[in-house]
Amino acid sequence: MSRRLLDKARRRLAAESGVRANPWGGRLAVALVYPNTYHHAMSNLGFLTVYHLLNQRDDVLCERFFLPDAEDLKEHRNTGYPLFSLESGRFLDEFDLIAFSLSFENDYLHLPTIFELGRLPWRSHERDERSPLLLAGGICAFLNPEPLADVMDLFAVGEAEPILPSLLETLQENTGDRAELLVRLAQQPGLYVPTLYEAIYDQGGQFSGHRPLADIPARVERQYLSDLNQSPSLSFVLTPETEFGEMFLSEISRGCSRGCRFCAAGYIYLPPRERSFETLREQIDTGLCHRARVGLVAAAVSDHPDAPAIQRHILERGGEVSVSSLRLDALRQE
Ligand code: SF4
């Protein structure tokens, strides 16, 4: 045990405000892992939104795991103390599901450290029935799941909001037969279980597709939230100990209509969708109670038809505005 590591986790938790994890007891337990440090993770809206979506359910609890800071990594290795959750200090193998939030390819390089500290066998076939299922979600997971196909048990192909309900309900109905559970999961929309597909090669040895090995869809369809107004994505947990700690972040749109060939955001989040000014105004007013600056998050903030009105509203309320990205050709005089 490392008193220093546990004290640091307690201090971090005490500095947070916002969503809290549900307590243990009778709930499906999900470990949400961000494969980078706390400082990076707590400014990631996808990570924070999944944390909120899971803990807003009565039948689920979700706790967070991070790549340890450099000095803490040394402490883990010196003491042999495993990776533990920020909230209750539990270890990864005490959870029913371990969900990795993969937003950046560079974070793949941290996965071996997390597996080592979490005492998880690397490949899926090395883990047995007692091991929690490992799921990868986030933009990297649905842009191309194959680099981690031997590692993860399943992938969320698409956005979390439409995928989570049937994933969680299927896990709640688990009878203990892992093989049967994986087939049932693969039958849900947007869930890809790599071990249930076989690669096909043509006569020249070129890869030509996948063949399902069970009664599951031949093709996994990407899922997306059709109406963003139904589900917010914002700084559900606020802490000063993160990159954008002085801001309240709010996603105003998802996807981009410009279709630049080099840009994944212009393709995998199609169709482009926006939150309405009315929805955002309410979120912003709440955010301004906690932070003086609002960070508007979108692939191209200036493409939102109400971008000027949103920014004006923040300024009129005495707040400051930051934007995640702008296109010069969409800037207006005002
Ligand atoms: S987000 Fe930017 S780079 Fe990507 S498609 Fe839109 S305008 Fe192009």
Automatic annotation (TrEMBL):
GO molecular function, one term: iron-sulfur cluster binding
InterPro entries listed in its UniProt record: Radical_SAM_N2 (IPR045784), rSAM (IPR007197), rSAM_sf (IPR058240)
Boundaries of every Radical SAM domain copy: 46-194
Lineage: superkingdom: Bacteria
SUPFAM superfamilies: Radical SAM enzymes (SSF102114)
Record-given protein name: Radical SAM protein
